[in-house]
Amino acid sequence: FYVALRLVACAQNGHDVNLSSLNLTVPPPKFHDTSSPLLITPPSTETHWAVRVEEKAKFDGIFESLLPVNGLLSGDKVKPVLMNSKLPLDILGRVWDLSDIDKDGHLDKDEFAVAMHLVYRALEKEPVPSLLPPSLIPPSKRKKTPVFPGAVPVLPASPPPKDSLRSTPSHGSVNSLNSTGS
After folding, report:
1. Residue 8 vs residues 135, 149, 154: alpha-carbon distances, Å
2. Which residues contact 76 (CB under 8 A, 6 or more apart)?
3. With 70 as the cut, is the pLDDT of residue 38 above it?
4. Where in this chain does the record put each EH domain (predicted)?
């Protein structure tokens, strides 16, 4: 399978399809099967961001009015803006935690836009998520995970259904298994 994929990559990059091409350095092959559940977001939708362009322009204006230092706002500068929303402190704390994507204690322009987006949604009675959804991660902050050559992306494993964790009644309980000494 590996050899077949290497040969496909060679063909896609204009190299001869033969065994001597296997040692060439080529990017991984590309497949465009839109029905695949393992498909990573195609480039055309990769830039989709839940923060609308009009919203972003308004948030950028607020960001600049707070006089960022080196393109960053400290928590002290952002706090009065967040507090002005009159949202509960636990909600505002979660907004900050979700917005400070790189966990540096400061918000850049995109992180600030995420914070303001979450605040405005919370004011419209939408719940603040416990984890930042991918659509809210700014395009500038995406793909920060290291990519290893030849790595194959996989879906995260889902936890097993709770019923599958119970012992099956047909052969007795776990205690009867232990009593046999096996």
Report:
1. 32, 16, 20
2. none
3. no
4. 55-143
